[in-house]
Amino acid sequence: MNTPQAPAFGTGQQKRAYVASLVGTTIEWFDFFIYATSATLVFSSIFFPQLDSRVGLLASFGTFGVAFLARPVGGFVFGHLGDRIGRRATLIATLSIMGGSTGLIGLLPTWEQIGVWAPILLTILRFLQGVAIGGEWGGAVLMSVEHAPKNRIRFYGSAPQVASPLALVLSTTVMYFVARLPNEDLMSWGWRIPFLTGFVLVVVGMMIRLGVEETTDFSEVKKAGAVQRNPIGNVLRTMPGRVLAGIGLQAAVIVLFYLITTYMLTLATNVHGFTRGDTLIILLIAGTIDLFAMLGFAVLSDRFPARRMFLIGSVFTAVFAFPMFLLFDSGNMLLMTIAFTVALVVGHAPTYAVVSSLTSDLQRGRAVQRLRRGRLGRPDPDRRHGTRAARRVRPLVAAAGPADRDRGDLDHLGARGPAEGTGRRGAGR
């Protein structure tokens, strides 16, 4: 009698969880990125017109940077709540905060209308965007991973990673057409259109997320009455070094991405005289190729060592840094496009596709040690909840991913990894 084989990419519910994480996080990153592009193109003129053009641009980037201070707040708060009330509820909350704050930016009065209150309100709403994306990413990874089939752990964990370049392509496309408006229309009402879509997109994302059940992992823990009272505090108390290591992994990845997508494109406009449309075309080409490359690396990450992929991308980034700046300094649009595309595809894509799962791997050694000490006889709340909280505590990006179970460190001890459920009891089970 032949045993039916499980679908290669999971069951219907598992795929819905992957799609919900991908689409929901894409919507949040879309809202996040349209701010980045607007800060580069228009915000210095409408929110800081009293400042010199260069100082105004720095002030505009300052509001953009506020979100990076807010992201660890979101990671801590929603990482904690995710282990207290569930992943599904926190993801609905983060999506609502992001959609609401983005839509309200589109309704903001400018400096000419309310003076200094305009940039103050803009900064507050940007902070809320940062809180939302900080809480979103880690929860989306967990929602996807805890539904994942065993042979696709890293691929499922890459859903929020793939969402980032997908959102970049979508937001850049929208901003490209907006930037083609006459300058007067762009500065008066055109820039508002992408932000106002936040009100619509949040409804779309909510409909998708409401169709996905709470993960079995959290449901079992809640049923067993083993929900921790202070998961974040436990993580910081027991694993501060690993949290810092996770921060380092994330910082290594995002510096290159934002260097290209904001700072260098701004210089392309201000130094080399490129039009807004030209800079967005460069970003659109590089981002689209980066998207497909990341999908490829996400599939490969379940077959090849993730650490090796991350190392290759990191080394390439360091080696290619000087050639990239030389190509940029040429002022040639084709050479700049090639430079940015190569940097994103070979440097960013392989590292970003696996960084969430590598961060969660930092906890695996601790879990293995406990199992070897014979602690399989009772539930271990540290292992069940602390790992998940650790995945979400990161000051630059609150993202996390699956434990790497393919190498069998836990399997040969008779324990399941986090994506298969952590509510098991009984030694040797």
Automatic annotation (TrEMBL):
Localization of this protein: Cell membrane
Superkingdom of source: Bacteria
A cellular-component GO term for this protein: plasma membrane
Keywords, comma-separated and alphabetical: Cell membrane, Membrane, Transmembrane, Transmembrane helix, Transport
Tagged with keyword 4Fe-4S: no
Feature: compositional bias, Basic residues: 385-394
Record PROSITE patterns: MFS
Residue stretches spanning the membrane: 57-78, 90-108, 114-134, 155-179, 191-212, 243-260, 280-300, 309-328, 334-355
Database matches in CDD domains: MFS_ShiA_like
Start and end residues of each Major facilitator superfamily (MFS) profile domain: 17-429
GO molecular function: transmembrane transporter activity
Protein's name according to its UniProt entry: General substrate transporter
The organism of origin for this protein: Thermobispora bispora (strain ATCC 19993 / DSM 43833 / CBS 139.67 / JCM 10125 / KCTC 9307 / NBRC 14880 / R51)
Classification of source organism: Bacteria, Bacillati, Actinomycetota, Actinomycetes, Streptosporangiales
